[in-house]
Specification:
By secondary structure, the protein is α+β, with helices and mostly antiparallel strands. It has two domains: about 45-150, 2-Layer Sandwich (Tetrahydropterin Synthase, Chain A); about 160-264, no CATH class. It is about 65% helix and about 15% strand. Strands 1, 2, 3, 4 and 5 form a five-stranded antiparallel beta sheet that branches. Strand 2 (about 55) and strand 3 form a beta hairpin.
């Protein structure tokens, strides 16, 4: 009877034995492999690629606009920048095509010399899309173009004299404003001098002064302030006579100092 019981329990003992062996073996293999690697964290990746200049016809089709800038690519579905760059390489031709399609319509509405207007119109058009989304192998990447517009070289050469004239006019207007401020400052200085003469001990005598006497009095009044202005005056005297722009700048500084004294 004992032999019969041993025959019945032997398979169960062997099963328990092999389970223990497999458990020990699994632990041993786990020790050899070391700790399991930590899962890779996915962060938002970004890649910038230059836009190959895109040429689109302006209104009238005689001249073109050129669209420059960069594509900004982003994704948070990838763990490594190399994965994003592979996606960008794949979808870059598609982005160029989409940008050209988006730019062609607005460009035909704008005269070829109004590049700033076309750039603003194209930016508004692109803002309506916000960004382009591309999918591949279950991974998602977005693209956002940042653009700037350049005129056709033939148009640029044609309008260059116009802008050169505008620059000259703006420069002359600035010089005229400086001269006007300088003249106003000199008038205020004479007003201060006359007030001092009239408030002096012999105001009636001021009216009967000869030119030489008046010059002598004025010279004496100005001499009292000469020390403070000497540094600026030396700088003004050392300037090139042809450098009118810098001379006006020194006149402004001198006038400002004297106006503050007059106000005091």
């Amino acid at each position: 009877m004992t032999d019969s019981l041993d025959e019945q329990t032997r398979p169960a003992r062997w099963s328990r034995f092999w389970r223990r062996v497999m458990t020990i073996w699994s632990r041993f293999l786990g020790f050899l492999r070391g700790p399991a690697p930590a899962p890779q964290l996915r962060v938002r990746l970004l890649e910038r690629r230059s836009i190959t200049p895109i040429t689109v016809p302006a209104r009238g089709f005689a001249f073109n606009f050129q669209v420059h800038g960069v594509f900004v690519w982003e994704s948070d579905d990838m763990a490594r920048i190399e994965e994003l760059r592979e996606m960008v390489d794949h979808f870059l031709p598609y982005a160029h095509h989409h940008l050209k399609v988006a730019a062609t319509g607005p460009a035909r509405q704008v005269e070829p010399h109004r590049g700033e207007e076309f750039e603003a119109l194209l930016r508004r058009t692109l803002d309506e899309f916000v960004q382009w989304t591309y999918l591949r192998r279950g991974l998602r990447v977005t693209c956002r173009p940042e653009i700037r517009v350049q005129l056709d070289e033939r148009v640029r050469q044609h309008i260059r004299p116009y802008w050169e004239q505008l620059i000259t006019l703006d420069y002359e207007r600035d010089l005229a404003d400086r001269r006007a401020r300088h003249t106003d400052g000199i008038s205020k200085q004479w007003s201060v001098i006359l007030d001092q003469l009239l408030s002096g001990p012999a105001p009636d005598g001021a009216a009967s002064m000869t030119d030489e006497q008046l010059a002598h009095v004025v010279k004496g009044l100005l001499a009292e302030r000469a020390a403070a202005d000497q540094l600026l005056a030396d700088g003004l005297a050392g300037l090139d006579p042809q450098n009118e722009y810098e001379r006006e700048g020194y006149f402004d500084l001198l006038s400002e100092r004297r106006s503050r004294r007059a106000a005091g």
